[in-house]
# Entry
Amino acid sequence: MAVFHERGLLLDPNAYDKILKRCILLNNLTEGKRIHNHLIKTGLLHSIFLGNRLVEMYAKLGNLADARNVFDKMPMRNVFSWNTMIAGYFKCDSIDHARDLFEKMPERDGVSWNQMISGYDRNGRPEEAQNHYWHMLAEGLIDMYAKSGFIEVARQVFDRMLERNVVSWNAMITGYGLNGYGDDALKLFYQMREMGVNPDGVTVISVLSACAKNGMVEDAQNVFDKVPQRNVCSWNAMIAGYTQNRHCGKALKLFSQMRQACVKSDEVTFASVLTACASLAVLNQGKQLHGLVIHSGYEGSVFVGSALVDTYSKCGSTEDAKQVFEKMPERNVVSWNALIAGYAHNGLGKVAVQLFEEMLRAETMPNHITYVSVLSACSHVGLVDQGRQYFNSMNHDHRIVPNAEHYTCMIDLLGRAGKLNEAENLMNSAPFQPNASMWGALLGACRIHGNLEVGKRAAECLFELEPESSGPYVLLSNIYAAAGRWVDVANIRNLMRERGVKKEPGCSWVEVKNVVHDFVVDDWSHPQAELIYAKLESLIEQMKHIGYVPDISFALHDVEEDHKIQSLSYHSEKLAIVFGLLNIPNGTPIRIIKNLRVCGDCHTAAKFISKIVEREIIIRDANRFHHFKNGLCSCGDYW
# Structure
């Protein structure tokens, strides 16, 4: 091992784990400390199971100060971490320290309770042992009933408790959150305070999570604002709440406030904030966060590394994603999934499939998410036979039973390839009722191939499954419009009005100097509107000189041809691209986000513009990425 210390070489994390176990067995604290220092230097200490093993080593060898130091510095802990530290305190008769730590535990298992009961009993404190025993039964019942969905029974147990401590209240608040009763969790939190029970850190996290999970973000913010002492966990819960509810801009703003408050970020912080950056596709802010990750010492964390891979992928920068992935000292299935999905959604399906095969050779077991990404990759590039092979091998090779997501990917794969009958037959053969995603994939394929008969059948099913969604109405209307059936188009619009269904307006946005600028069709609201429209008119003339012809099949109104061409000219994608050309320095790709599927004419126009201005243009729409360069698109026009 000394050779590895001197040369700074890295072993597999499992090898370090075996060495630390050996140190415990041989009572060799000196060698254990050397391993600890080596892990700090190599950045591997962020592994949760190596952190746990170090806590165990120091505790079992009687060095509680170093055990607690490692425990306190762990970026993430699980119940084993807490149990190990508590066991160490009892071993050295530090009963009060054990009790204090037990009361701070965010979650407990049977081992946690048994340690406390047996520890009190061994140290001649039978009354406290018995008290913990009864609390264990009550809180165990609350937790069991809540997790099983019997929240009313859990509340009955809670109400019948003769004595409740903060842990009992926390268990009930958490139970309400798990079962979707955010209002009840919030009411119980305020009732707890009225009865003079002081909330602890776990209470705050429980109520924030319960509110956020149930869409009550403003209520969560109100609770958060009233917390006198916020630790990193409460900040994390609030940031995650905003991210989960798609208030990603607010999540980034709150992270900035957290830094101003001098609260040190941990792995969970970075993962949540990186997810927000990925959702907004703000590459520059993502890169700034990457710098903070390195500065904070979390570059070796598999948790943060996977989030970085996902962020770069969703910002359209697969090269950066691959670099992060290759530098990760430890990879798991989440890391592989992030990279495979990234290449799939960026139109590099064949690379994604190669990565999947590489993952299998690395003996990393795929999960159901892996197969969703691989089947999606096959769909984006038309690998029908390979997709069929992977779909059939899921259960046979890895005991993964295909679910609705996998069927949706296969229906999309077959439908895009024009095999609509096979796609519908596969859907009907599924061992469950087809859901909206499956019918939506079939309807989308009918839009591509103009199949009105199957499209109408799919749309009618979607009208029943998702009566408030505008998507099926719009797609069916598009099929009618492409066939020139304008009376049917009008009937669909009337039907939408009658049912109160509103079409989601198309919107595109682009980030410039950390500021996001958004555009809608025929948008004159931007301060640079006159410059944008003048530049766009000039580009359209240049495009026409080299062969661009507006595709009026994407103008979905029964008007004169000139009006159709004009309506296509000012789509939000084109306005966002031109704004990017005016404001983003040469040599830097222009990255556009579109909330809906990019229209065919804008797709064609982006190819021409990329050739004229000699700039890379990247558009992320609702389904995938399109990388335009030198007049070509990464999708190969198969989308």
About this structure: Confidence is low (pLDDT under 50) at residues 1-8, 557-561. The first strand starts at residue 507 and ends at 512.
